[in-house]
Amino acid sequence: MDKLELVMRNTEEIVTVDELKGLLEKPSRPRAYVGYETSGKVHLGHMLTANKLLDLQRAGFDVVVLLADLHAFLNEKGTLEEVRQIADYNRDCFMALGLDPERTEFVYGTDYQLQPDFMLKILQMARNTSLNRARRSMDEVSRNAENPMVSQMIYPLMQAVDIADLKIDLAVGGIDQRKIHMLAREELPRLGLPAPVCLHTPLIPGLNGEKMSSSKGNNIAVDEPAQDVEKKIKSAFCPAKVVENNPVLAICKYHVFPRMEVGMTISRPEKFGGDVHYASYEQLEADFVSGAMHPMDLKKSCAECMIEILAPVREKMKV
Predict the structure, then answer these.
(1) For 4, what's the count of Cα atoms within 13 Å in the CB-facing half-sphere?
(2) Based on CB atoms within 10 Å of each CB, which residue in 24, 127, 134, 222 is the most buried?
(3) Where in the chain is the domain with CATH 1.10.240.10?
(4) Which residues are CB-neighbours of 55 under 8 A, at least 6 positions away?
């Protein structure tokens, strides 16, 4: 797999592919980043973008992880002290997921976002951004989207200026970040700052087949005890022959195959066909859709793989 294929795999959208190719041809190492609001546990949704950071490091990027404690505070996720403690915890989880410590820079929002120069850029962008545009940009990521606080309207402006202040070439996020990233691409040049290339990953469904949400408990934390991982996956929504909104297939596609280079083996009794090995997700999905793979066999092997993949996090966090 060449560098471009590695960067583009398991992505929803890249704005734009030609600009991305240009980054890969730069003589110096380009910089990519993800900002994580430090509001709770790191779960499989966050891990999807962390997997992409691993791909980017292999493709020659330096990586910046913004632990967005001030964003979390503005989004009513806790006091500054509480969100800073969560940020420390999140940092340890992300390192345990395999990021290269020599090429990963962790930055706390409160370390630079309260500086006069940063705040001046926010005010300059605020003069150019309508209330409707700011609200559309923050709807996907804010709490109380029906009746937002002014602080939440500032959120997308800060995220755009983050990209400039951290000297980012490639902004990475889930597809729910798209409106904020497009705001950055349009408005940063008006401040005399470069527009970033943007890479968006899909949003994987929660374990019940609905939108993943920490408040609904339909996700898996990366430091979750092994027995809980097994229990959750075995009870997850996984209708036979159905791909759409199937969280078990999504976990296999976006977490198991990218991290297990040898592929995935489904263990089954001989009377049900015996073990079968898949070198690619596409082969696995084809068998599942045809009915050759039973949901319970898939769940059992998926759980075993995720327990193995997440073992370094449990060890690091002593769970």
Answers:
(1) 11
(2) 222
(3) 214-317
(4) 6, 7, 9, 258
| 155 labelled binding-site residue | yes
Q: What is the pLDDT of residues 215-264, one digit of tens each?
A: 788 999 999 999 999 999 999 999 999 999 999 999 999 999 999 989 99
Query: What ranges make up the beta strands (E) of the chain?
Result: 13-15, 31-37, 62-68, 104-108, 170-174, 197-201, 264-266, 276-278
- The whole-model pTM stands at 0.93
Apex 156 CA angle, 209 and 160, nearest 5: 115
CATH number belonging to domain 214-317: 1.10.240.10
Strand segments (E) across 160-303:
170-174, 197-201, 264-266, 276-278
Digit-coded pLDDT (tens) for 77-111:
999 999 999 999 999 999 999 999 999 999 999 99
Enter the tokens of residue 234.
Answer: 């075995």
Residues of each domain in the chain carrying CATH 3.40.50.620: 3-201
33 among the known binding-site residues?
yes
The domain over range 3-201 is classified in CATH as 3.40.30.10: no
What pLDDT score does 119 carry?
Answer: 95
Given phi > 0 = left and psi -120 to 50 = alpha, else beta, which region is 244? beta
Q: Is 214 within any annotated ligand binding site?
A: yes
**Would you state the structure tokens that stand for residue 319, as one six-digit string?**
């769970």
As a whole number, the mean pLDDT across the chain is: 94
Here the tokens at position 11 are 């992505």
Q: Is 297 annotated among the ligand-binding residues?
A: no
